[in-house]
Amino acid sequence: MGKAIGILGGGQLGRMTAAAAAKLGVKTVVYCKSEEECGTFIAWKKIIADYDNEKALLEFASLVDVITCEWESVDKRTLEFLERLGRKPVNPSSLVFATAQDRLLEKRAAQAVGMETAKFWAFQTPQELHDAGFFVGFPAIMKTRFGGYDGKGQRRVKSVEEARRAWEELGHVPCILEAFVNFKHEASIMVYRNSRGKTGCFPMVVNTHENGILRQTLFHQEAFGGAPFWTKHEQGPKRLAEQLKLVGLTCVELFFTQDEKFIFNEMAPRPHNSYHWTIEGCNVSQFEQLVRILADLPLVEPYSPFRSVTMTNLLGHEADKSVPALLSLPKVSVTLYDKPHRDPKPGEPPRKRGHWVAVEPYHRH
Ligand code: AMP
Questions:
Q1: Which of the four pLDDT bands, split at 50, 70 and 90, describes residue 211?
Q2: The pTM is what?
Q3: Does 1 have pLDDT greater than 60?
Q4: Which protein residues touch ligand 1 with a CB less than 6 Å away?
Q5: Residue 365 has pLDDT above 60, yes or no
Q6: Domains 4-90 and 183-360 share a fold
Q7: Quick one: pLDDT at residue 24?
Q8: 272: nearest Cα among 253, 254, 258, 259
Q9: For residues 43 and 28, is the Cβ–Cβ distance under 8 A?
Q10: pLDDT tens across 306-362, in order?
Q11: How far from the centroid of its chain's Cα atoms is residue 85's Cα?
């Protein structure tokens, strides 16, 4: 085949994309800031440079056939620079990343394709904050419009007074105030689209968070009424992918409410932690589907032959301590990212250093 994919970012998502590419004989070039980033260890080539280094970006573009990005908060100027070069397609585009990076834009994009969101109001002045409290009501969640992830840049507030204090703590940056959703479950759905407009979804999953980060994902054939019902909920994410002219993957995070409705929370235009289970649990993994899209290879519709699959993250020291025991279980598959342990800063969650997947077949022997 001889194609090469350029990956901006050196984390585990790029690493697993590089592994999926290698499986299909597609080469990868990882561009990131440090030799120590785990995505570089298994790539064909690496470029170590800052994301504003024009010379290095030019070299990167000359080595590959297509460029993608494995982390959400990439500076969109880097993507725009590569797009302006016009030499190699950048997928997903800077427009898709810019939409996902702004909580206001992403919610508007979801609403525009008919997906329901929690009530929200954007503000950047004290008067607008007051209006936000009036229109959204309390309790509510204040979120910075830009740069927030894994619960960072967020405050729960119960009154206008608390909202004022929270905004001060957040540094008076542009924010949204969002109604508190009393959800039954958190869910996600992975949508994909190729350059020919072929769109589809991976099966929906249920997510459990701990201290603001994903702990466990459950895929179950019967979840949310099973496949016939998922089809209905795939329509919004598919329309979103079409609207944004997505080429690649986007994970849509949802709340499943007490009255059994799905509400859009946010989107991430890259492989997602809640779909790592597809490596062992589906006919095609999220990483392989991305590689197929980028290398313009045929796509297959994803399905899982298992009754259920769970994926559990290995956080901090768990990646050292639990692995020998996990490796001795026959139906468990362990993936390690080769990231050293680092003590988290106060208030920060432990590092994601790997995950394990357990599959439950239909018939136990
Ligand atoms: P986010 O960064 O938007 O994914 O939010 C991080 C986590 O905060 C989510 O996974 C939820 O557990 C919680 N959360 C965010 N928004 C809301 C909301 N409107 N209502 C209730 N919980 C929320």
A1: confident
A2: 0.96
A3: no
A4: 118, 141, 148-149, 151, 178, 180-181, 186, 209, 253, 265-266
A5: no
A6: no
A7: 97
A8: 253
A9: yes
A10: 999 999 999 999 999 999 999 999 989 999 999 999 998 887 889 999 999 999 998
A11: 27
Closest to 231 (Cα-Cα) out of 264, 183, 290, 191: 191
**What CATH number matches the domain at 4-90, 3.30.390.50, 1.10.3090.10, 3.40.50.20, 3.40.50.2020?**
3.40.50.20
CA distance 116 to 110: 7
Query: Which atom of ligand 1 lies closest to the CA of 182?
Result: 21
In percent, the amount of the chain with pLDDT more than 70 equals 98
Separation of 151 CA from ligand 1 center, angstroms?
7
Give the CATH number of domain 183-360; options: 3.40.640.10, 3.40.50.80, 3.10.50.40, 3.30.470.20: 3.30.470.20
Contact 270, 72 (CB under 8 A): yes
The total number of residues shown for the chain amounts to 365
Three-state DSSP at 310 gives: strand
Region for 275 from its dihedrals, namely left if φ exceeds 0, alpha if ψ lies in -120 to 50, beta otherwise: alpha
Query: What is the SS3 assignment for 26?
Result: coil
Both tokens of 318, joined, read 């768990």
Question: What's the pLDDT score for residue 212?
Answer: 84
The CA 253 to ligand 1 mean position distance, Å, reads 10
Candidate of 265, 267, 272, 274 to mutate for ligand 1, largest count of ligand atoms within 8 Å of Cβ? 265
SS3 42: helix
Which residues are paired to 253 by β-bridges?
A: 188, 266
